[in-house]
Every structure is written in C-alpha cells, then in structure tokens.
Amino acid sequence: MSAAVSIRGLRVSRGGKLVLPGIDLDVPPGSVTGLLGPSGSGKTTLMRAIVGVQIVESGDVSVLGMPAGSPELRRRVGYVTQAPSVYGDLTVRENLTYFARIVGVGGDRVDAVIERVGLAGHEQVAGSLSGGQLARASLATALLNEPELLVLDEPTVGLDPVLRRDLWAFFTELAAGGTTLLVSSHVMDEAERCDRLVLLREGTVVAVETPDALRERTGASGLDEAFLRLIEGGER
Amino acid sequence: MSATFATAARVLAQLRRDPRTIALLIVVPCVLIFLVDQLFAERPEVFQQVGVPLLGIFPLVSMFLVTSITMLRERTTGTLERLLTLPLAKLDLLLGYGLAFAAVAAVQATIVSLVGFGLLDLEAGHSKLLVIALAVANAVLGMALGLFLSAFAQTEFQAVQFMPAFILPQILLCGLIVPREDMAEWLQWLSALMPFTYAYDALARAASTEPLGARFWLDVAVVVGVTLLALALGAATLRRRTP
Questions:
Q1: 0.90 surpassed by complex ipTM
Q2: Beta pairing, strands A5-14 & A17-27
Q3: Residue B95 with chain A: CB contacts under 8 Å
Q4: Where are the domains of chain A?
Q5: How far is CA A83 from CA A44, B61, B82, in A?
C-alpha cells in the first residue's frame, strides 16, 4: 500500500532559523505514528508542512497521493493545533455546528462527536471549559467529517491519565478503521501506544521504528531511556 | 453559499453572547445624536445639516471597530488558521462577516434613525429609507476597512488605536466639521483621498432638498468601490500558508 504521507527532502526555515534541514519520511496508512522529540525539534513545523499551512523552502510533501495543501485535501485531512482553536464565546455544540456546516456534515455527526470526546452535557461557552475539555472540543472539530488523515499536535497535553488512556484507545480504534494518525507527544508512555515512532532531534529524523524495535536496538528497558540514549547519543 | 450563511450565523451568535456590546452599539449612537441635538439647540439648522450625515457615520465607525477586533481575535486564537485548513472559500468568510454586520448595522441605523427622525425632528430631504440604506452601505464599508486593517494589528491595543489614527482624521476632513471648500487646498486633496468624504457627501446630499445630482452617484460608486477593494485586499491578507 502506498504511504499516506510521503516526504522527500523537506527543508523549512522559520524566522530565519533552519528548522527542518531536509527530511525524508513515509507514514503508512491506517496506523498511529507517534512524532516524538524535545521541544524545538521541529515537530509542529513538520506537521504544519504536512497539513500544507507551512511555507517550505524546498522538498516534496505528498499527502494521500497529492501535494500537501491541495484544496481537495481540506476535506480529507484533519488538523488539530496544540493551542485549542475554538470560539471561546460559543458553546461546544455551537462551535461544532458551525464547523460541521463548513465541512458539510449533518447535525447527527455533531452529536456523535460530542459523545465521542466525552463532552455531552456541557452547555456552557467553550471559554469557561477546563483546559482538558477545551482540548477535546478542539479535537472534536477535526473528527466531524471523519478525515482519512488526522494530524494531531500534542492532543493530550494537560489531560488526566484516564482521559489520555481513553483518547489513545480511540486513536487506535480510528486507525483500525483505516484512518491514518500522526500524533506528536513528548510523553513516553503514550509512545508505547503507537504502531510506529518517529524520533526527531534538531529537525532530523533519528529513528523510525516500532516501540519494541526501538527498545531492542538501544538495549533500554523503557522507551524513556531508549529515547534519551538516541537523543544524547547523537551528540557524542 | 451555505458556508457564507453559516459564518454569518456564527458571527451573530457570538455577538448575542455579548449583550453589553449590542447595548453599546445601539444606545451610544442614540445618546450621541441627542447630544448633538442639544449642542445645537439654538441653531436647529446646523443640527439639520450635521444630524443626518451622523446617522450614517455611526454604523461606519462602530462596524469598523467591531470587525477589526473580531477579526484580530480570529487571527490570534487560531480559529482563522483552522478555518483556512477547511474547505471554506475566503470569500465565504468575508461575505459571512459582511452579511452579519450589515444586519447589525441595519438594526443600528434604523433605531438611531427612528430617534433622529422621530424624536429629534430631523428631516431627510429625499427619503428616510435612502439615509438608512446609505447607513447600511457605510457599515459594510466600515466592516471591509476593519477587516483589512486588522491584518496590521498584532494586539487589540493596536487595533483600537486605528480609531484615532485612521477614523478620526477622516471625520475631521470629510466635510462634516468644516465644509470642504473652506479647507486649505492641500487638505481638500487629502480629503479627496479618504473614503469617509464620499460617505459623508452622499449622506449630506440625501439630507438636503437639492437634487441628488451626478456627484451623489459618484459618492455611492466610491463607497461601493472602496468596500470591494478593501474586501479584496482583506482576502489577500488571509493566507493559507504562513511562514
């Protein structure tokens, strides 16, 4: 099967600083790929390039068989930024109803998605939700039209362990249904839930493998340690 | 098209959550027009001259401010970036805003006109409906200018400063305070470059009993033209790809 995302020689500078010096990466379809790396390693920039909102210097980013940012992909790719982006002065339902009309799905999807992210019964405006609830409201928006590729930038930041577990179970479920997920995180116990891990350090891919293979290769007992060995090993 | 109406409905829903702003939008122009009436209590002919144009200038100013802040919020909270990753045409967004604020402006202009024409005995030389229609057109102009200029503000403080920087000079030079023909020549030139001048002139002509004349239609054409230009420039500031 061809890759859901295929990147060749991607080079991106932001604010005069070279963030991605030239990345090659393939993301297989119907899987959960974890994008890991220290802050500032270029995770968000890479995700933005895949969604097609990042101005890139050079390189090819192909998403679902077409250039990233193609108009048709706006229906097929869902993107959730790290900072929740919903209207704080509207309720969750009002927010979702608006976005549903933009992507062209019905009110039944709004109900289903609210249920799915566990926000049923929250009738107050989004601005007065807790951080975790707000993050889920933002995630819900991207689920409305069931995109083939979901790009989620740190979707579980600030969530309690129960919610994190539930969301990851949900991600696995989506992938089993054929959705491709690219999820960035810096929490290593979440990495365990991914089919594949992409480790990024200073804009360079230092490893692409399954959690098991990563542990085996580095001889580390946990992913945390495996990760540290790879990150720091590269500096020696 | 449905995305346009969805956007308009969403903008109005947001505004509904802010009753204080609605109250300010409606009450402030009414209070101001009453103040102007009282100011010229001894010279009703002056009130007659400035009162009607003011009815149409209020919506311009308030929609400019409301739009520039709302749009700035869209930019800073990330909702604009999200919208631009969705199958939404930029025109849908702009027209949605236009539709919503034109509706608000119609309500605002109607109420302040009722006060002006009904309680304060203002007279519209041509027709009261023409004044209200011009007020709505001005509101859409204010919206388009606010939309465009909001791209140049990074914070709400900056956006609010556009009021004295961008709006006040136009109010001073549009002919409302000193007739244009009494201004120094260079001020007249400056005034000729300002959209408010045409908005004011059209209102002043609608208020007078003289025939509207060709100049009125030029005024209307400029107001519509600047609105479209500002919308086009505003659309150009909405970038799907950013650095």
A1: no
A2: antiparallel
A3: none
A4: 1-76+150-211, 84-146
A5: 11, 33, 11
Tell me which residue in A54, A75, A102 faces B3 most closely, judged by beta carbons.
A102
Residue A37 per-residue DSSP state: -
Distance from CA of B177 to the nearest CA of A (A): 39
pLDDT at A236 over 70: no
Of A54, A90, A99, the CB nearest to B14: A90
Q: What is the pLDDT of residues B125-177, one digit of tens each?
A: 888 889 989 988 998 899 899 989 988 888 889 988 988 899 999 999 998 88
Could you tell me the fold of the domain covering A1-76+150-211? Rossmann fold (3.40.50)
Would you say the pTM of this structure is higher than 0.90?
A: no
The letter for the amino acid at A5 is V
B125-129 contacts at long range (C-beta below 8 A, 24 or more positions apart): B125/B206, B125/B207, B125/B208, B125/B209, B125/B210, B126/B205, B126/B206, B126/B207, B126/B212, B127/B206
Measured between alpha carbons, how far apart are the two ends of chain A, in Å?
A: 38
pLDDT digits (tens, 9 = 90+) for B62-83: 889 988 898 898 988 889 989 9
Mean pLDDT of A167-194: 89
Task: Please state, in angstroms and rounded to a whole number, the distance separating the CA atoms of residues A160 and B188.
Answer: 65
Across residues A1-5, what is the average pLDDT? Answer: 82
What are A5's two structure tokens? 């995302």
Q: pLDDT value at position A235?
A: 45
Distance from CA of A103 to the nearest CA of B (A): 6
Q: Across the interface, do A94 and B79 touch by the CB < 8 Å criterion? A: no
* Residues 6+ positions from A33 with CB-CB distance below 8 Å: A27, A180, A181, A182, A183, A194, A195, A196, A197, A198
